[in-house]
Design brief:
The chain has helices spanning 15-33, 46-52, 58-65, 78-81, 90-100, 124-127, 163-179, 194-206, 220-229, 241-255, 292-304, 308-324, 339-353; strands at residues 3-11, 36-41, 69-74, 105-111, 131-137, 147-149, 155-157, 183-188, 214-219, 236-239, 264-266, 271-273. With 359 residues, it is an alpha/beta fold. It folds into two domains: 1-101 and 269-359, Isopropylmalate Dehydrogenase (3-Layer(aba) Sandwich); 105-261, Isopropylmalate Dehydrogenase. The chain binds 3-isopropylmalic acid (IPM) and manganese (II) ion. Manganese (II) ion is lined by residues 245, 249. It catalyses: (2R,3S)-3-isopropylmalate + NAD(+) = 4-methyl-2-oxopentanoate + CO2 + NADH. Mg(2+) binds at residues 221, 245, 249. It is found in: Cytoplasm. This is 3-isopropylmalate dehydrogenase.
Length: 359
């Protein structure tokens, strides 16, 4: 029996709805495999600002430090998006959390599911077989540099990277490429940015240590095009914080819905798992949010605990839902299911139905 403590930050908008379904699936895993997962719900984001004035209350941070893993729904609220002068913002909570937990690598797998090929606006033959892993740097770059206003009313955001910040995530990306198809693409803007030239330098210096990995370099503008023009060329993509944010939302078009993409953030201490989508406030409370991205984030969490069979079981259950069309409206407009129905179906597959993880 494995016993783990998971801090749950459901957050804002659709966050609580998708987390509820993900925990349902985790409970099904616990029941089927005899594990114990204890959940500790804490506030982060706009809900935390409302309750405490602080997007990342100290109690939340402490709970995360002492957990075995953190599961996050989503944060953000339009009332802050439309108020550029708001002094406190939900996103500050997430950024401070990532920084405090040392989560320097955000790993975002992108898969084209065969049964959903026709749901992508991209041509099926172009995306079929896509399987890429994006390593997005998460605690440096323009997100965390000096920012502010000058006396003349201009604004600035500094982008800084140290050699160490680049090297530690680059090593993870190289190692991942070694276990996959042996191909690493560094996405940067080295024709313009000094930080990008440092990324290239560091990656070029590391490359000889990973002889089984073939390294490519792409400028981010070209990469943005290549990702949807010919996604199958990519195996592991390594990139800085902001480029990774943008490229991964774009890549979700290949899967067919932003609501399908999970992520794992790892680094020095406890790991955090979250869907790549935002809080989608327009959908909150309507039962139309896709819980699969969060459920697949739970699969990544299980894998992180070393529970490979459990993770595979969750993924197989998701495949079953995709195959059976038990999906939210953006993926099944004719016979839409609710967030709750999709979650329950997947949990049911995990608990009762799937005899073998690779059914
Ligand atoms: C993400 C989100 C966040 C980011 C926001 C909410 C700060 O877009 O996780 O991709 O930009 O990192
Ligand atoms: Mn994003």
């Amino acid at each position: 029996v494995l016993s783990k403590k998971i801090t749950v930050l459901a957050g804002d908008g659709i966050g609580p709805e998708v987390c509820r379904e993900a925990l349902k699936v985790l409970d099904a895993v616990a029941e089927r495999f005899g594990h114990e997962f204890e959940y500790d719900h804490q506030l982060m984001g706009a809900c935390a600002i409302d309750a405490t004035g602080n997007p990342l209350p100290d109690a939340t941070l402490q709970a995360c430090y002492h957990a075995d893993a953190v599961l996050l729904g989503a944060i953000g609220d339009p009332k802050y998006d439309n108020d550029p002068s708001a002094p406190v913002r939900p996103e500050q909570g997430l950024l401070r959390l990532r920084k405090s937990l040392g989560l320097f690598a955000n790993i975002r797998p992108v898969t084209a599911y065969d049964v959903l090929l026709d749901h992508s606006p991209l041509r099926a033959e172009r995306i079929q077989g896509t399987d890429m892993l994006i390593f997005r740097e998460l605690t440096g770059g323009i997100y965390f540099g000096q920012k502010g206003r000058t006396e003349d009313g201009s604004a600035y955001d500094h982008c800084t990277y140290s050699r160490e910040e680049i090297e530690r995530i680059a090593r993870l990306a190289f190692q991942a490429a070694e276990t996959r198809r042996g191909h690493l693409t560094l996405v940067d803007k080295a024709n313009v940015l000094e930080t990008s030239r440092l990324w290239r330098e560091v990656v070029q210096q590391l490359a000889p240590e990973y002889p089984a990995v073939q390294v490519d370099y792409l400028f981010v503008d070209n990469a943005a095009m290549q990702v949807i023009l010919n996604p199958k060329q990519f195996d592991v993509i390594l990139t800085e914080n902001m480029f990774g944010d943008i490229i991964s939302d774009e890549a979700s078009v290949i899967a067919g819905s932003l609501g399908l993409l999970p992520s794992a953030s790892v680094g020095s201490s406890v790991a955090l798992f979250e869907p790549i989508h935002g809080s989608y406030p327009q959908a909150a409370g309507k039962g139309i949010a896709n819980p699969i991205a969060t459920i697949l984030s739970v699969a990544m969490l299980l894998e992180h605990f070393g529970l490979l069979q459990e993770a595979d079981t969750v993924r197989a259950a998701v495949q079953k839902a995709l195959h059976d069309g038990v999906l939210t409206p953006e993926l099944n407009a004719d016979q839409p299911h609710t967030t709750e129905q999709v979650g329950s179906y997947i949990a049911f597959q995990v608990a009762e139905r799937l005899e073998s993880p690779l059914y």
